Amino acid sequence: MRLSTRLAPVAALCAAVLFNSSHAAEDTAADAKMLRAIYTAALTNGPAYEHLRELTTKFPGRLAGSKNLAGAVQWGEAVLKATGADRTELQPAMVPHWERGAKESIAIAGGAKLTAVALGGSVPTPAGGLTAPLVELQSLDALKTTDVKGKIVFFNRPMNPEYINPGLSYGDAGDQRNQGPGEAAKYGAVGALVRSLTHAHDDVPHTGNTTYPPDGPKIPAAALSTIAADKLSAALKADATLQVSMQINSRWFEDAPSANVIGELRGSEHPEQIIVVGGHLDSWDIAPGAHDDGAGIVQSIEVMRLLKAVGYKPRHTFRVVLFTNEENGTRGATAYSTAAQEKKEQHLFALETDNGGFQPRGFNLGNPAGNAAKRAARWSALFEPYGIASFSDGVGGTDVHPLLAQGATVAGLTPDSQRYFDIHHTTEDSIDKVNPRELELGAAAMASLIYLVDQYGL
Amino acid sequence: MRLSTRLAPVAALCAAVLFNSSHAAEDTAADAKMLRAIYTAALTNGPAYEHLRELTTKFPGRLAGSKNLAGAVQWGEAVLKATGADRTELQPAMVPHWERGAKESIAIAGGAKLTAVALGGSVPTPAGGLTAPLVELQSLDALKTTDVKGKIVFFNRPMNPEYINPGLSYGDAGDQRNQGPGEAAKYGAVGALVRSLTHAHDDVPHTGNTTYPPDGPKIPAAALSTIAADKLSAALKADATLQVSMQINSRWFEDAPSANVIGELRGSEHPEQIIVVGGHLDSWDIAPGAHDDGAGIVQSIEVMRLLKAVGYKPRHTFRVVLFTNEENGTRGATAYSTAAQEKKEQHLFALETDNGGFQPRGFNLGNPAGNAAKRAARWSALFEPYGIASFSDGVGGTDVHPLLAQGATVAGLTPDSQRYFDIHHTTEDSIDKVNPRELELGAAAMASLIYLVDQYGL
Fold first, then answer.
1. Is B32 on the interface with A (CB under 8 A)?
2. Is some CB atom of chain A closer than 8 A to the CB atom of B357?
3. φ, ψ for residue B221, nearest 5 deg
4. Statement: residue B5 has pLDDT above 90
């Protein structure tokens, strides 16, 4: 099925011809009726929100290696069984195991405490903590021209407010958290502080993964709330000799066993061909993980319920995958795509939901021929009554992306994004930030796309 | 300018011809640059959210006749002056003056209290309250076939969850609150309870206006939270003889003086032709009025700031109008349109924002020719980068609608609506439900449309 991208226009033509020969003609009236039935089933007492309440209250802080992630795996399989999966499976994956330990403490030496959380993967401070002078930088590049030896480096570049899509601002500022500490360590820094990656101006610190270059030195690293970052910056301006004390009590353990949770409806015509919908079960340790990605988990399960509720029998095998370890290792995604390759499974389509449970606006899509978004856009009129207006090019998401290399079309749900980074990777990513109807509308949009792809292909 | 709607296609053609003769040709590159400048000014430290904090904390519960509405009027004029209005004006309007009095109490007689609020405009219960048997109805029609004499009527039809737009569900269920008590009174009921108009299942009651037919009997009326409504319905099923006690302490006063607040930038080419943007200053007495309609107030002021921030000098007179008394009388809108007619003012365009400060999605538009939405849609590509994709037919909103009859094109901002009715007319309509970027994106969308209309007309 894979074609060189240089042949994309030809591929599109061929796909259209193949489509006409191998599938029924599209029946817009019947499809419109099916979508309406799916949306009605979702909006009338759909259980997604109650599932999310259960997941986030019973198993908050579902980080790889934690007891709560193990509990969530069991919970996920039970819910998929109760939803009517023909078959469930726990697909093993060994995952990284990092623990925060006792609460971290960051303070101006001899002065005010600063609201902060250790970054995921951070090494601990030496016993007794560390105290060192501070240097504030706006970029990793500045490391080349600044003496940071023996100092704590404070990356304080705010997310750029000018992007309309905060995801772009997040990507833009993310090097400070992802690579900043490791890079600063190369230049002799002894610790790193990072401004939280958020547009919100509040006292809530945002964690997230940091990675050190292999074989490079490792220094402890924490994120400050944006208010704490402003406070620290002002204090440093007032006193250039200011020192900061850091105490981080984290620890790395041996890899731990975990699993992807798979639930299936066997295809009635082509059981050997697979359509996937999924999100990730794990969350950061400090976070209830409601939007990231409890929402995606309960929406994926809800897609299965909706297909059954409207009496639809998939032609191809429909599979819900609750991926493990998206946040700090993506070992779940690797385990899934590796097994698919080994078993020579044929994945037609894989749809991810990991951008929050907000009002859905569209999908991003990618396929080897490079025409997936255009192909899906032919259904715009069907989706228009439901506020789904955007079909853009993309690679789905972290967990389904590897299937693209196996010839699958990958896709991701695109919800509104303005509120997402306000609570991303924080204690505040809780169920009260999720609107039950927005959550169900996302599930209904996905079930609708799955139905259309199952009927007509992409 | 007015044309019969039967001539709409011809009108569109004529408008296009007239446009070409009377305005500069549209310069898409320059316009795109202007929109980008407007959005950047909005997203980079725009003050709308801080204005909203001030309005909702200093002057919550801005109901017509209240001290807080009077305070908000003064505040609004001061902010418009500080924003750089060439001229401000307080346009007087006499407004209804209803007060809730001491907190209402609704309870199962001899049993549990029920979370409730009196409806706006409700008459009080007799001294000492009233206790009567209960009858539950699902519609006003059921009054014709049910004996409600001497009883308290309980309208308990939920909002229909199947509509995608909750505004339609609200309209659909709204007769219970708007006319239900007055209609029940005609049939001899002594009191009325109404299920709160919301999709949320919680213990927050929603007030809102109820109106009695002129010269008909009037009975006291309150809204129950959806949880209280379910509780009461279950209790009634268990005991058909159940009675309910109501105590409402409301009072009508003489009409009170209030004012619309007007702030203007004088047009550089056609000062006699007016473009309006506005929202309403008043709110329900129990509500901080953040989304309804504090958001619209600060967005309207922000439109003026944005035009000035990007150095744009309007060709026509640009007017911000902070309308008074939208919630229970619309005397502000009447005063404004009456004055416009008396002064023979020529209104080209009037844009309202009264649907909450959520992520903006588009505009509804109406004009005498019936082609305003289509005309505005020619700017779709300019708005596309900002998520503004919908240009639909409509009548703007309650406050600008009267100007349509004077030949103006009217419009309303259309934001996401899923969360709006969760907090509408409640104590929970507070600033923490508003996202600063979504609020500014709405203001930027409006400023962009105002710029385009000012440049090219509709």
1. no
2. no
3. -145, 140
4. no
**Is A164's CB within 8 Å of B359's CB?**
no
CB-nearest partner of B435 from A162, A419, A437: A419
Q: Does A361 touch chain B (CB under 8 A)?
A: yes
**Token couple for B3:** 């044309």
> Which residue is closest to A386 within chain B, CA to CA?
B164
Q: Does one domain contain both B242 and B169?
A: yes
Same domain as B369, residue B267: yes
Tell me which of B201, B224, B249 is where a domain ends. Answer: B249
Q: Do B359 and B267 share a domain, yes or no?
A: yes
Report the alpha-carbon distance of residue B216 to residue B225 in Å, rounded. 28
The answer to whether A202 and A226 are in contact (CB under 8 A) is: yes
Same domain, B220 and B141: yes
Domain that holds residue B190: 101-249
- Of B43, B385, B418, nearest to A435 by CB-CB distance is B418
ipTM of the complex: 0.92
Identify whether residues B266 and B379 lie together within a single domain.
Answer: yes
Give B339: exposed, middle or buried? Use CB within 10 Å, 0-12, 13-18, 19+.
Answer: middle
Q: Is A172 on the interface with B (CB under 8 A)?
A: no
Contacts of A357 in chain B (CB under 8 A): none
Candidates A321, A291, A322; CA nearest to A69 is A322
Residue from A359, A430, A432 to probe the interface with B (highest B Cβ count within 10 Å):
A359
What residues of A are in contact with residue B166 (Cβ under 8 Å)? 437
Q: Is A422 on the interface with B (CB under 8 A)?
A: yes
Strands (E), A281-437: 316-323, 346-352, 360-366, 390-393, 409-415
* CATH number reported for the structural domain that contains residue A190 in this entry: 3.50.30.30
Query: How many Å lie between the alpha carbon of B40 and the closest alpha carbon of chain A?
Result: 5
Q: Based on the fold, state whether residues A37 and A117 are members of the same structural domain.
A: no
**B388 in the same domain as B296:** yes
**Residue A293 near residue A175, CB atoms below 8 Å:** no
Q: What is the pTM of this model?
A: 0.93
Q: Using the structure block, give the residue that is written with the tokens 């995604």.
A: A333
**What are the tens digits of pLDDT across the range A309-335?**
999 999 999 999 999 999 999 999 999
In this structure, the number of other CB atoms found within 10 A of the CB of residue A325 comes to 30
Closest partner residue to A418 (CB to CB) among B40, B199, B359 is B359
What dihedral angle (degrees, nearest 10) is formed by the CA atoms of B269, B272, B277, B283?
A: 150
Which residues in chain B have Cβ-Cβ distances shorter than 8 Å to A43? 161-162, 164
Chain B positions in Cβ-Cβ contact with residue A431 (cut-off 8 Å): none
Tell me if A164 and B386 make a contact (CB, 8 A cut-off): yes
Residues of A with Cβ-Cβ distance to B414 under 8 angstroms: none
Edge to edge, what strands does the sheet with A270-280 contain? A87-99, A251-265, A316-323, A270-280, A346-352, A409-415, A360-366, A390-393
Tokens encoding B437: 């970027």
Q: Cβ–Cβ of A161/B441 closer than 8 Å?
A: no
Q: How far is CA B138 from CA A303, A355, A424, B21, B143, in A?
A: 32, 39, 42, 58, 10
For B317-332, b/e burial (b = at least 16 CB within 10 A) is bbbbbbbbbbbbbbbb
Cα dihedral A194/A200/A202/A205 (nearest 10): -40
- How many structural domains is chain B composed of? 2
* Contact call for A164 and B416, based on CB within 8 A: no
For B66-117, the pLDDT digits (tens) are: 999 999 999 999 999 999 999 999 999 999 999 999 999 999 999 999 999 9
